Amino acid sequence: MKMRWLSNPLYLAADLFTKLVLLNFLWAVFTLLGLIVFGLAPATVALFTQLRRMTWKQDESVQLYGLMSSFYRTWKAEFVRANLFATGFYSLLLIWGINLMIMPVTEGGMQLAMMVSNSLFGAVLLLLLLFWFPVYVHFDLKWSDALKVTAMIPFRNLWTTALTVTAVAGFLTVLYLFPPLISFVGISGLAWLVMIASKKSFLHVQPVQS
């Protein structure tokens, strides 16, 4: 039988904060271990994998040591696959960056058209990046299928998407006002918000994937 204080809201909040701090630290360490470029994707996959365990209550007794060992195992196992999948997004980011650099040297209608198209492309890319990692760790899909699901989720439940974007914007505002928090929960807190929102969206997508 669980002790009563384990269900106390203050304890649960402190427990969540502690785990987010640990996950934020692990994400930074393993990103650096992969020389940033090669460590970013697998470290983020490992982060979302642990957050999925926590939000979907797969393991009611997730301990700090368990998070650390599971994080490392996931990072190691997904290193190659996650980097291969991330190459597609790196390519899209490169294309977007090139367009942004070209835009200032254009004039008139061409510049306006590029401004509108780059803004739309950036917004779509942001939505894809928000939901890509939750989809990756929740479903076992090929690249093309995962991309389809990721592209479908933001438009499947517009209300949830709007709340997610608002929550992310609010969280980023808090980080801007209190920069020291970035070192503690900057990445893990943001990922946790996205994972919570994705859980609601997956309830609508699951029947399609079964």
Automatic annotation (TrEMBL):
Pfam families: DUF624. It comes from the Bacteria. The keyword Amino-acid biosynthesis does not apply. Keywords: Membrane, Transmembrane, Transmembrane helix. The chain crosses the membrane at residues 20-48, 82-103, 115-137, 158-175, 181-198. InterPro entries: DUF624. The keyword Transmembrane helix applies. Coiled coil: none annotated. This is Integral membrane protein. It comes from Bacillus selenitireducens (strain ATCC 700615 / DSM 15326 / MLS10).
